[in-house]
Amino acid sequence: LEAGGDGGRTDEPTLEVEAPEEISGTDALWDQLTSPPPGRAAGPPAFEAWGLSVGGRLYEPGLEEFLDGRERTPALVRQYRQWLSTQLLALRWLEDSPLMDDPAFRGRLRMRLIDAISEEVFRHEMQIEPVTEDEIRALYEERAEELASGERVHVSIILVSTEEEASAILTRLEAGETFADVASAESRHESRARGGDLDPFARGAFNSQFEEVAFSMSPGETQYAVTPAGTFVIRKLAHLHPAIPLLEDASPAIREELEILSLREARERAIEKMTRELEANDQVPFD
């Protein structure tokens, strides 16, 4: 990536790469990627936007930028080398690819470059306010009713094909066989591996015929429901009424929501600040 009003072109393609001790003795692929072929003249930039260009064997590896303040270690240098090899491989391939003759592809590259630069500018200029525990608690209390889970039921089931089979199973259960044993042996539903047990669910999770029976039953009661999917023998284990989750359980989702809001507000402040500064110098690029 070279900066300059004319795309940053030079007469002789060069690539200056600091060769730290950790990556000395590079292999053939590395040498090919970081050294221009003998006698190869700098070709036209693969694409240009706002005075920035990529192409013509002009690359800036940027180890310090990759480290971004982290302590330089052999592991990070190896990670950097792997990353750079991949990036240079794609750019080297792109220079001679007919893909660059496609105006739509070149347009997408320009847009990606503009997006990447603008995001870095905003990230630098944004002053993001950290989310506090008081803010999380305040939103939690404000949304108590909204956070409450709906009415749910907990049941075990045995799925069979006909009402006759369901009646026979009810008879076996009345005779003393356990629901889990019969479900494991007879049910066509995947819950047979758990003795027929289903996780608690709210209305809308299953078809209406099944839910009408499940929600109308009393805990401990066993009935069957005829549905398009088959006949379900249902034993109701519990009826769970709406409940508000604990603050500690709701906090992660609330924090994420507040952090997204904080990021959006910081971006808006950065846009307003940059616009004011450009307007002060009569340099606003749009009306």
Radius of gyration equals 33 Å
What strand line-up does the widest sheet have?
Answer: 5-4-7-6
User: Which consecutive residue ranges, at least 5 long each, have pLDDT under 50?
Assistant: 1-27, 29-37, 40-60
N- and C-termini, Cα separation: 31 Å
Largest sheet: 4 strands, antiparallel
Q: What do these coordinates show?
A:
This protein is of the alpha+beta class and 287 residues long. Helices cover 47% and strands 14% of the residues. It contains 10 helices and 7 strands. The chain has helices at 28-34, 63-67, 74-95, 103-125, 133-142, 144-147, 163-174, 179-186, 208-216, 247-280; strands spanning 2-3, 45-49, 52-55, 152-160, 201-202, 222-227, 230-240. The strands form 2 sheets. It has a 4-stranded antiparallel sheet. Helix 1 crosses helix 3 (74-95) and helix 5 (133-142) packs across helix 10 (247-280). The model is unreliable at 1-27, 29-37 and 40-60 (pLDDT under 50).
In short:
The protein has 287 residues and is α+β, with helices and mostly antiparallel strands. It has 10 helices and 7 strands. The chain is elongated, with a radius of gyration of 33 Å.
What features would you highlight for this structure?
287 residues, alpha+beta, 4-stranded antiparallel beta sheet, elongated
